[in-house]
Every structure is written in C-alpha cells, then in structure tokens.
C-alpha cells in the first residue's frame, strides 16, 4: 500500500480556450480501466480482501482508515489517494462516512503524477 497526495500545487494552470483552472493529473493507462464511486455510510466498511487488479482509491469526502496485510490502519481524508497492488490484501473503513473514487486497471502508476504522502 502506498499513500499519495492529490494537490493543486502539483497541477498545471490551463489557459487554452480562454480557460482558467488548475489540472492535477491522477493516472494515465493504455489498458482498460474501471472507475466507480463508493459511498460508505456511518460505520461503513469495504471488507478485508485481495485486490483483483491494481487499485487506486481517491478520497473525496469524509474521513476513514485503510490498511494492507499489516494490521496498522492509516487515516485518510479528502485529497488522499491510496494505491494497492494486485493481490494485496486491504480494507477501508469509516466511522462517520466516506466518499471515494476507485480506479482499477492492470496498468496503474500513480507515482507518475502524484507525490507520496
């Protein structure tokens, strides 16, 4: 498991087409990818299981805890990105609720765009 940080500071200011915003890249893959939004309510849990493919969880709202094979939990909050390798055991849980985007693909390399936390 690796923890990355989503941040505006690592983004690029986009001005084309009279735009004015910052784009922070997250991932690029040539393999097919599955992208979903997960909503964990109060005391929600994504049970301890093996990742079928590499997975990247982007925390959008709320706070929670993640772990891998080690029994130590790490707190996550908006702006955090958690990466698990294929076959890595992991779990996500929350006391008060958490919303996140999960990206799953055979080819994920979050280190290409985001710094480690």
UniProtKB/TrEMBL annotation:
**AraC-type arabinose-binding/dimerisation domain: which residues?**
55-98
Q: Does the keyword DNA-binding apply?
A: yes
Q: Does the keyword DNA-binding apply?
A: yes
Signal peptide, first to last residue: none
The UniProt keywords, alphabetically, are: DNA-binding
Protein name listed in UniProt: AraC family ligand binding domain-containing protein
Q: What is the lineage of its organism?
A: Bacteria, Bacillati, Bacillota, Bacilli, Bacillales
């Amino acid at each position: 498991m690796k923890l990355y940080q989503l941040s505006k500071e690592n983004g690029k200011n986009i001005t084309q087409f009279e735009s004015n915003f910052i784009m922070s890249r997250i991932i690029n893959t040539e393999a097919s990818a599955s992208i979903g939004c997960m909503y964990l309510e109060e005391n929600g849990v994504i049970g301890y299981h093996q990742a079928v493919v590499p997975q990247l969880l982007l925390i959008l709202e709320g706070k929670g805890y993640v772990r891998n094979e080690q029994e130590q939990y790490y707190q996550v909050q908006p702006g955090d990105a958690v990466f698990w390798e294929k076959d890595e055991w992991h779990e996500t849980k929350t006391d008060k609720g958490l919303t996140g985007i999960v990206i799953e693909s055979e080819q994920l390399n979050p280190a290409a765009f985001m710094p480690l936390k």
